[in-house]
């Protein structure tokens, strides 16, 4: 037992550091990948890009927003091949807890299960189009 | 590869044999091309429908892009009373050209004003016209829009793949070198298999010799022992010249080095149907085509700066409500309406139609697309690298390809395309400011040519998903959408018809817009004649 305790503390510390890093990454990852359309404060642009602030869908069951990020919808691209489960979870957790949103975080495992259950998108990596 | 082919030595159909060859020579691509070819022949229209006797029936067209302009031109000539409402102050829709003074403010972005030197421009929307787009070429011929060759393939251009491994990863290598060395070595290995009898079941007697002759020709193999030892087409260390200079051939790259670099991904036995040469561009910019159409449409038909808010209809007529350039709310009544605007935009307009039609309009996604034109103070790609037009391919999806101008050769300056990216990558790059995009593109090009970053003078960039009145580069139908929503939208809802590239199998191409317009105005005409 005495040998295990410090190890457990170490794991716990790592976990906390990891969570902090994820929160920070969430903001940065959102700015990089999402803000061009949904806008830096998640307010969207009426008639073009939906607002994420106050959006019930993104604050709903984790599998719903995770599936949209993975598969795309309407004018939104699929991020399936561009962002891994950790990053998508970090982004969604950030979105669900920012700008007045109050939903709980999404775990990478939530994204992973949405990834396997959802239809897989054809990722035609064309060198060029049109 | 050898293993693959040898394993296939069991009984094998000719077709399967060709497909196996795909891993060496890319014949699967050839087949895809052939099937696309067959489809294209079925669907392509080369001339507008013959309409006459419009008898003053009223048509209101929404959108002055290629589809709307085509419809307005043909229907007004046929005697219809046409009104076209265009949201912008100019015609063309996505068929735009940015030159000095052109402005663009993306949604959520800052205003950009193009500051390129006179005569320089970038086609930031459609930029090339394949030889088989006879519908679009019908109008360039009819209106005398001069064309020039768009260089869509350049043997001497660079491939810069940095995500592979080995000595060629992260190195700018010439396309001719990659093609020669990989295909040469592949032909050599296949020749070995044939000579060892591995394909005796597929090739007998004279066929075997004929096939070996083909491999020798295809891979530039030595006459006697079918070895690939390089070929002049891959380029020289010292080019041949006058007097005592026969030139010095460069040694081939190792086949595994080319494989590991990933550069082979740019190769295919034949260009895809949509990318084949001959490829054209209008002299002076793509907007020459919509400008020619608009010029040939009778004055007064096109009303610019008119933004449509609502389309109402009843059994007898359709009424379109819009805000004009002075901010006045107006409406126009007509017998029929042709909505030739992107579905991404149409879905935000109050449209009187069935729920099924409305649902179908939302059943398609639109491509996120980014492009940037970089004005370079010197044409170093020509002067130092001897590349005249064509594409430099990268495996950085945030850059895609860098394309050198197919015009203005040997002049002082030029505008090249600094990136062309899609989807999630386009979302990412579009989050940058115009200045950040320029710096990003300059840094990427700098890895390939040392003169790049220092030569950039100015830029003009677009993220089509953030452009008002377009909201995306082009329609992207899923197989499911093609089966469900697409057929619904091809038919009118009451007196409302739709047209555009999105209602064709040529999505993203101007020819798709033209042919969709031709198809829909023929339907309107048929109905108007019967009424």
Description:
The complex is a heterodimer of chains A (130) and B (531). With 130 residues, chain A is mostly helical. Chain A is built from five helices and no strands. The radius of gyration of chain A is 17 Å and the shape is globular. The N and C termini of chain A lie far apart (65 Å). The relative contact order of chain A is 0.15. Chain B is α/β, with parallel strands linked by helices and 531 residues long. Chain B has four domains: 35 residues, no CATH class; 164 residues, FAD/NAD(P)-binding domain (3-Layer(bba) Sandwich); 127 residues, Polyamine Oxidase, Chain A, domain 2, CATH 3.90.660; 92 residues, de novo design (two linked rop proteins) (Up-down Bundle), CATH 1.20.1440.240. In chain B, helix 4 runs parallel beside helix 18, helix 5 crosses helix 18 and helix 6 packs antiparallel against helix 7. The interface between A and B is medium-sized, with 29 and 41 residues.
- CATH level 1 class label of the largest domain in chain B: Alpha Beta
Low-confidence stretches of chain A: 1-16, 121-125
Q: Please identify which CATH superfamily of the largest domain in chain B we are dealing with.
A: FAD/NAD(P)-binding domain
As a percent range, the share of helical residues of chain B equals 25-40%
Number of helices of chain B: 18
Can you tell me the CATH architecture of the largest domain in chain B? 3-Layer(bba) Sandwich
Using the CA coordinates, give the radius of gyration of chain A. Answer: 17 Å
Largest sheet report of chain B: 5 strands, parallel
What's the β-strand tally of chain B? 25
End-to-end gap of chain A: 65 Å
Strand content of chain B: 15-25%
Low-confidence stretches of chain B: 1-43
Average of per-residue pLDDT values of chain A: 83
How far do the termini of chain B sit from each other?
65 Å
Order of neighbouring strands in the sheet with most strands of chain B: 12-2-1-16-25
Q: Indicate the proportion of strand residues of chain A.
A: under 5%
Largest sheet data of chain A: none
